[in-house]
Write a structure and sequence with these properties.
- It contains 26 helices and 3 strands.
- The protein is mainly alpha-helical and 606 residues long.
- Helix 15 packs across helix 17.
- The chain binds zinc ion (2 copies).
- One zinc ion (ZN) binds next to helix 20.
Amino acid sequence: MNKFSFKKLVSALVITAATVSISACNFTATNEQQPAAKSFTQTQTQFQQFSEKFIEDFWRQNPGYGVYVGYYKFDDQLPVPDAKGMAQELNFYKDKLEQIQQIDVNQLPANLASDYYILKNEIESAIWYATELKSHQWNPANYNVAGVFGVILNTDYKPKTERLQTIIQRMANIPAYYQAAQVNLTDPTVTHTKLAIQQNQGAVALFEQRIANAVAESDLAAADKNLFEQRLNETTTAIQGYISWLEKKLPELEKSAKTRDFRIGKALYDTKFKYDIYSGFSAKELYDTAMAEKQRVHQEMITIANKLWPKYFKNQAKPSDPLVMIKTLIDHISVKHVKRDEFVDSIRQQIPELEAFVMANNLIEMDKDKPLVVRETPEYQRGFAGASINAPGPYDAGANTYYNVTPLDGMSDEQAESYLREYNHWLLQILNIHEAVPGHYTQLVHSNKSKSLVKSIFGNGAMIEGWAVYTERMMLEEGYGDFEPELWLMYYKWNLRVIMNSILDYSIQVKGINEQQALDLMINQAFQEKAEAQGKWRRATLSQVQLTSYFTGYSEIYQLREDLKQATGDGFNLTNFHNQFLSYGSAPVPIIRELMFDDYVAKHTK
Ligand code: ZN
Ligand code: ZN
């Protein structure tokens, strides 16, 4: 639902196919390249040349990731993650690091300086992933070729026959790819091994069914069809060989005390947090902040629930445990929700109301020329229930931005009821704030004005998610919903999920808590249903750090705003804060802070 699939670009040979998932809330801004103006100083020109060359070389290095964002020039290439390929990749990043270090960032204007820091972080991060994190040795789920083949099959960027020819060409390296995987995986974890088995079974199905059917129905020449048959054989043999190899390994991995834990531990976590999030906080500071915030939110919820209790449970005694009281109340009022067949329409109707509120209160500049199109999620993109922003990639400038909403057609009555209770009358409004106005969609419109290809490809996930989470609270604080206690109570429940994601990630990966302790946190302290909590446990065992991005970005944006209020007193202006903050594009919040703080204070001190 509000999962931002953070496209962490890492030691990409072994990672691209597996970790870049096109899912809900996955968007990249539509941008154009910075025009080369004559007035640029030498350093600016030097950086722009570096940046353009880096991006071009980056796609050559990561052709599969290019396909995901709409850069198809190297779509027929599948790099092999063998020793030679990995050494070449590491050298690529080391060369780029040397080059970027020769550029004097202090000579660059704000927009380019932020691009500079983003690229430098990207390069250093890739080197660290390859040399320190080394997930190519312990995460078998890194190896899965299916994703990019699926995109080539399903995306209409050139005629279908040509796309099938590309697919056939790209299949040539599949056996070598899985050979290399087996050489690299010296220390696999149990959790990631199980995931790899499951996901690669899906990969076999993609080739044997969907791709094979498409080839059979096509008017490819007989020679092409024969070549496909041969490569299909080699492909399924390679993938099935990989699966059996993992399946055979699994029992010994489960038995042995020496098997690597899926948890990465404190040292790796701290550094991964630094690179993935680009935060002004350390991982531990962020964890402490989240723990304190959980306490604060519980107190606020208790206050509201105490007031609301008599309204809904006149003669019934309050449960003695205040958290049980809150849960009882939330369950009770969640029955207020739209009908299942009105789900899409109710969202469509709400967007103009949110826009009107933002404009009437002059909260952020809104661009009336770029309306958000609400539509039913196209069939081929379904699979995730719910709602998400679907923005064009950096290479199709000008395409529409859609708010995809999946109708509840496919659900049983019971599933639909449970879903509608979750996205009840109040939570649906918070969801629309987050996804659309003034959350992701509004941020995207502003971000597009900064015209940075770097930020649209390497945009900071914590800033993007943090902004959407920040706007939920900001809208309510500014009086959206007239301070209705039910709306605030539901907001806090929703916000607790974001807080809990951070606590959970750190507690599992660094403090080493087990499944039971994790479920207890989510169910008893954040009011989550058991099924949701179990799903989150699974996700938290497979990824690291990503779950903290929402809360980190949100905390840092809120903190920046409060610090600016402090520094400017009566001169503080919320609209100007929002507009200036968004003008830097999807850069990490600490960079935006660095670029805007003094300037904002100078302009707003009376
Ligand atoms: Zn989001
Ligand atoms: Zn109902």
